[in-house]
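Backbone-to-sequence.
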């Protein structure tokens, strides 16, 4: 592999590079080198010896708006992981994203090489496969032929449609396409870094404004981000047949929401209540200020409003396919206390760290000053000079 191209939803390549850099900074504690961020809009950047280009793309343009900038016929591997996670949108709102998927598949079919294409789908595409049955069974790794296997949300239905598009492309070139149904993700096992816009981090953050968390019978069958990322790479590089389906999920139910609530209580300086979901929902609804969890009130009411304290862990998903090709998936474990506390510490510190990143972006502090300001959140870690050198090279 000689070149990596990151397609990013952005206005231009400079903004695309800035978004990639910001994401890397959150996960690794260091972004792209500053001279890379200030270079010409179309020029690539170097990361750890690999040629990496960050490109702003047009969602529904057949050639992604790139023109002659890059020879796309040289593509060998494609990982499509961009999809809006918005449970309030209807299916029609996802049409441009389905068109983008079709264009990427056309690109894969036109390459001079045997392209391996991985589409990051969701377990939501088949989450309702039991169709209301009380019998809990295992969902197998195969393409669904029944659109009712997805629930009524536009997001879930769009993933079902996307998988069908992938299956049609795979019929033209068997072994090219891999569909990766990814379950609920959680923080990185090394840093605790998570997506603060996910529903669960939003719920956890309400402890700061409401002084409480809901009491849920919820297994923490969550998959760490770094484990999922490694599994995506492993699956993409592996040989496959037909339109192969892989479930990247953690089926463990050993650790629960009650465990996580207890661990958070041990870390917080201020005590908080664990209340019935109905009480938590009422307090959130009555809260007069702005908070990112409030737009999800409908989602939480549907999940927890009728039967307080009850939350299904969902069906089981067969993971035989990824376990055959990925050591990361074979070694998936239940969430530990150390990991749970690491996640909470990261979520608790993230608002202050984001203020520092914004200050650096506005030129109010240098990147070196940002690094040392961030160091207080990880006092035991020393600056990794070797990593800094490789990123700047």
């Amino acid at each position: 592999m000689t070149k990596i191209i990151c397609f990013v939803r952005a206005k231009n390549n400079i903004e695309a590079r800035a978004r990639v850099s910001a994401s890397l900074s959150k996960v690794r504690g260091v972004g792209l080198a500053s001279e890379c961020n200030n270079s010409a809009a179309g020029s690539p950047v170097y990361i750890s010896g690999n040629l990496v280009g960050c490109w702003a793309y047009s969602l529904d343009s057949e050639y992604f708006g790139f023109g002659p900038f890059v020879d796309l016929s040289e593509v060998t591997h494609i990982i499509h992981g961009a999809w809006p996670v918005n449970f309030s949108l209807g299916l029609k709102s996802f049409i441009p994203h389905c068109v983008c998927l079709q264009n990427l598949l056309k690109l894969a079919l036109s390459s001079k090489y045997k392209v391996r294409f991985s589409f990051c789908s969701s377990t939501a595409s088949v989450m309702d496969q039991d169709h209301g049955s009380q019998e809990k069974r295992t969902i197998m790794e195969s393409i669904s032929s029944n659109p009712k296997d997805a629930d009524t949300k536009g997001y879930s239905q769009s993933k079902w449609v996307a998988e069908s598009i992938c299956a049609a492309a795979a019929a033209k070139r068997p072994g090219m396409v891999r569909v990766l149904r990814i379950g609920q993700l959680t923080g990185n096992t090394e840093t605790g870094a998570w997506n603060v816009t996910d529903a669960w981090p939003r719920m956890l953050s309400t402890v700061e404004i409401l002084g409480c968390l809901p009491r849920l019978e919820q297994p923490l069958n969550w998959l760490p981000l770094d484990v999922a990322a490694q599994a995506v790479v492993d699956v993409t590089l592996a040989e496959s047949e037909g339109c192969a389906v892989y479930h990247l999920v953690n089926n463990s139910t050993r650790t629960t929401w009650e465990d996580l609530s207890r661990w958070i209580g041990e870390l917080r300086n201020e005590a908080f209540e664990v209340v019935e979901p109905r009480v938590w929902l009422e307090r959130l609804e009555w809260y007069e200020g702005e908070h990112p969890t409030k737009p999800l009130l409908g989602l939480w009411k549907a999940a927890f409003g009728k039967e307080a304290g009850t939350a299904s862990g969902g069906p089981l998903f067969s993971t035989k396919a990824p376990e055959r090709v990925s050591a990361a998936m074979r070694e998936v474990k239940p969430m530990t206390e150390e990991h749970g506390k690491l996640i909470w510490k990261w979520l608790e510190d993230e608002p202050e760290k984001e203020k520092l990143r914004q200050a650096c972006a506005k030129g109010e502090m240098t990147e070196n000053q940002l690094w040392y300001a961030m160091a207080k959140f990880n006092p035991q870690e020393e600056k990794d000079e070797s990593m800094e050198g490789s990123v700047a090279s």
